[in-house]
Amino acid sequence: MLILDRSEKSALDYAVLNTSIQETFAAIDRFEWQASDELRLMRDNSYYKNGAYISFEEYCQSELTKHGGYRRVKDLFAVKRVVETLPEDLRDKITKPSQTRPLLRLVKTPDKLQQAVAIAAQEKPFPTAADFAKAVQQVAPTTKRTTKKEKSQTQLCNFVTVSSQSHPRYGDSGAIEADAPNVWQQIVTFPDGERLLINNGDLDAASVPFRKEQTYPPEYTEAIAQIKEQYQQELERLSQELRIGLQTEASTRAEEQAKEQIQSLQNLYKQQKEQNIQLQQRLDEMESLRQLEAENQQLKQRIQDLENAVQERPQEQWGNTMTQQASKALNKQVKLALEKTIDLRSLAVVPPKENAQECLRLMGMALKNLASAMNNAQALEAAAIILGSEPTTQAIAYRAEQLQILPQAVSDIRQVLAKSGCTWQDYWAVAQEYEVIKSDYWAELTNQETDLITALQNASSQPDTIGLGSIVAHADPYRTLYIERGEVVEDLGEEVVVAWDCWKERSKKTERYFRDELRFWQLQ
């Protein structure tokens, strides 16, 4: 394709110019077919909806107005439809959309369509629209009966020519044989039988008496203008109200979302804080276990040193008694092992002030230390019997630790049971920490205290409704009060009044709720 510069006046070679012209027309035809394929892809896949267009016709009228609009697109689709119906050897006879108009009525009869194109191709290698129309008339002639009225209308018809270059029928002439549905268009019938509704501006018939637009008296014109202005003002007002309403709704929704996010972050922070506290407790427990392990290793090393001291000499040299050196070594190890051993004679002089269980624990610990120092299995079994455990060093040590926390367990449980309005949840919050020594602290409690615990357990196992004195929390897990503790202080029938523990420092300490908005409080 040759790019011409009009400022240059040099003569061009005929062969070069002719080749460029051929390539230009070939490119036009190729791009026209490509445009048809792209338009069909846009229509079939509804891509126009991504551009906020409701229909394909609206897209064509808005985006392709300067290229002929929807009418030009329909012509391209008609060309594509005719070409796809023809066989391969006849498709190249169609070079532009205007050639297919006479052939459209034969699309539903492919045999006649092929016959008409073949007849036109015999006369010319590249037939025109008139050649195709002539061939169509030979293959499928049309006869039309004309009445007297139609004859009179034909005699009185006006012939016009399409003068707009953007119109697909540019240069074609036709007759106006019927009244148009409006004043700015005309119904034009062309020689090939096609009837089109064409704008007055696309026709060159200045002598044709086109109807003018309807006029109104001045008073009607002013009234119409006033009504239009009122309508426009009302439309603007409604648009403004709609815009303000949408902005308000969007702001409210954004504020609610922000509040929900803040609430979620607060809950997450609280959960993280509780997890950190639990992790620190576990670390402290692990540190205590590590210290106990170190002490255990030291005791094992002492026992090993004692055994080595006993085994340094053959058994026959020991006889029924020990030598002086072995006695000194044994006495030294026993003394070291019994440095922290409880003196049983002190218990006889000053008995323990706590209880008999504490006395037994001290005796068991003393026997355990003595058994470790003397490597005496009978002393170890005696310590196990007294403490109620297996006759092993680890079991006796674990049992001794349990009995050591027994006084504290009994004190905590009695303190909870002494509170007014004590519930099973209050008792269980403390008792679950001492569940491993339940049988021990149960024996220390009085009959009245054990009966009270049994009654609290039976009351908690029965289904109950939230009422006066119930300990509750909020039932919605997304509310802050879901993990807080409150007490029902007033029963209003369908509603109850709850006093929250976390609101004690506020001016407002209570709030009314329906029963289904609450749940029984449980320790988190």
Please outline what is shown here.
With 524 residues, the protein is of the alpha+beta class.
Could you characterize what this model shows?
This protein has 524 residues and is of the alpha+beta class. Among the domains are: 146-209, SH3 type barrels, CATH 2.30.30; 463-520, SH3 type barrels. Helices cover 56% and strands 8% of the residues. Strand 3 (185-189) and strand 4 form a beta hairpin. Helix 5 (110-123) packs across helix 6 and helix 8 (218-311) packs antiparallel against helix 10 (324-337). The longest helix has 94 residues, at 218-311.
Strand-helix topology:
Layout: H1 14-44, H2 56-63, H3 69-85, H4 88-91, H5 110-123, H6 129-139, H7 148-155, E1 158-161, E2 173-178, E3 185-189, E4 195-199, H8 218-311, H9 315-318, H10 324-337, H11 344-349, H12 356-374, H13 377-387, H14 393-404, H15 406-417, H16 424-431, H17 438-444, H18 447-461, E5 471-474, E6 486-491, E7 495-500, E8 510-514, E9 518-520
Antiparallel strand pairs: 1-2, 2-3, 3-4, 5-6, 5-9, 6-7, 7-8
Helix pairs in contact: 1-3, 5-6, 8-10, 10-12, 12-13, 12-14, 13-14, 15-16, 15-17
